[in-house]
Amino acid sequence: MKVEFLKKDVSSVSADLMVVPCFRGKIPAWVHSELVKAGVEGDFSGEKGKAYMLPVKGKPYKRLMFIGLGKEKFVELDEFRLAAAKAVRGAKAARLRDVAVWVDFSGAARHSEKDIAAAIVEGALLSDLKLAPYKKKKKEERKLGRLSIVSGLDLGPAVEEARALAESQNYARLVAVEPANIMTPRKLAEAAKSLAKEYGFGFKVMNRAEMKKKGMNGILAVSSGSAQEPVFIEMTYNAGKKLPFVALVGKGITFDSGGISIKPSKGMDTMKFDKCGAIMMMGVMRAAAEMRLPVRITALIPATENMPSGSATKPGDIIKMYNGKTVEILNTDAEGRLILGDALAYAAEAKPDLIIDAATLTGAVLIVLGRHGIGMLGTDKGVMKEMYDCGMETWEKVWELPLWKEYSEMIKGDYADLKNIGSESGEAGTITAAAFLKEFVGNIPWVHLDIAGVEWSDGEAGYFCKGPTGKGVRLVATFLKKWCGKRK
Ligand code: BES
Ligand code: ZN
Ligand code: ZN
Fold first, then answer.
1. Residues 392, 456: one domain?
2. What is the per-residue pLDDT for 112?
3. Which of 128, 136, 234, 416 has its CA 20 to 30 A from that of 147?
């Protein structure tokens, strides 16, 4: 879908469909007169979630669609993403290809028109994505051709940035939907390589032998049961010397069977999503480049399968991690923290100003926050406050959990420095996992995002279809924009 901004009057825009979002009880006069002309003025008053389509004559657009937002006082920014998704679905159902959305509220009370335009672009692009790459296509695919944001105000830069963010999120979703037999660690490295080529990133991959030389035994222990070679991907974006420097680390388990501590077979297929932290960081890199953020980024992605076999790691095994700490592996299903431990220690060596990691790390975060929140833990309160604000803005919401010293006690080992689970019963599972990661970041400010609850949608929900959501891409890219803007 092509996205454009037009600084025009609504009456001069040619499109198949003109969409007008309306607050309840605050319908523009010209909209009201269109309803009167059609003799249906009682049918629409801007109720939240209601869409109403009218054929029009003598206008450069063929149809008008009004979308109700509810009372202006209570409207969240996310309502505009939802409204855009509704418009996209309505347009597709009516076989209309070119959609324009009118964004001019002559001063909306709660949100700026820039933010509203951005939200509409995001909702439209995210809802337009199809995610069934291996399903036989129906003869005629219904796709949108063009989305035009129309306003008397200057919203061009906001539209452009939202396009970069949403397209990067869709990129992540397209990589994430690939199953484990196709998206092996090697294939993930290839995907990263073509991204690097397209955007001019620095790119390096380490194989098993190189990781062995470096002593990255966390990654090697997890991969030891798999027939697929593990990889350690390193990508760099550098907008200039002396700019703020951030390291991004993403969990890239292309399939998590649990290993010898094997998972129940019911629902095990969903563990192809265990690579979403890695892919999220690829999406953030793409967005940063598209937005030309004044920042330096190193993205580090340890990628491997976690499989059981005769050569697999066994419960009770003890390994030495990249930073020299020893770990007793009591449960081979707590594998994410092992590959991340090595990657975080490697990241810390480069002395970035900040490390952000993202991982589908614990089932426990689903117990705490369900499917609506990202668990956030870390060592820098200021950064976490900013991340929280970005969560509310992007609606990729985060919630902080504590990292008190008592939780670090829970992962002290009996036979090694650390053990890879807190307790058999899983008490505070999300927190003990983060406490484990903390052992590897040294004194570098660090934020961890446990995204296990939010990366997969079980069905059509809002502007997402069934499958990977790519959540976190807009969150972290938006955060980076603000963070480097302040530090320049
Ligand atoms: N990839 C899983 C986390 C997960 C589990 C995400 C269920 C979504 C749904 C992770 O590797 C894992 O298996 N974690 C274990 C840790 C436990 C063994 C301490 C978990 O959360 O059960
Ligand atoms: Zn696991
Ligand atoms: Zn896992």
1. yes
2. 92
3. 136
Count up the domains in the chain and report the number.
2
Ligand 3 centroid distance, CA of 121 (Å) = 33
Give the residue from 162, 161, 153, 155 showing the smallest Cα distance to 120: 162
- The answer on pLDDT for 314 being more than 70 is yes
Q: For atom 8 of ligand 1, which residue has the closest CA?
A: 363
Joined tokens for residue 42: 């009682």
Mutate to test the pocket of ligand 1, among 266, 313, 333, 449 (most ligand atoms within 8 A of CB): 333
Whether 263 is a known active-site residue: answer yes
Token readout for 215 is 């002593």
The predicted model gives 397-411 an average pLDDT of 98
CB 59 within 8 A of CB 14: no
Are 82 and 213 members of one domain?
no
Cα 227 from Cα 31, distance rounded (Å):
63
Q: What is the mean pLDDT of the chain?
A: 96
Which protein residues are within 6 Å of ligand 1, measured from CB? 256, 274, 331, 333-336, 360-364, 421, 426, 429, 452
- Expressed as residue numbers, the domain containing 22 is 2-153
Q: How far is the CA of 345 from the centre of ligand 2 (A)?
A: 20
pTM: 0.97
Give the pLDDT of residue 488: 67
Residue 143 is among the residues annotated as catalytic for this protein: no
Whether residue 184 sits in one domain with residue 124: no
Given a contact cutoff of 8 angstroms between Cβ atoms, the answer to whether 287 and 279 are in contact is no
**Final residue before a domain boundary, out of 153, 184, 217:** 153
Judge if 52 and 126 occupy the same domain.
Answer: yes
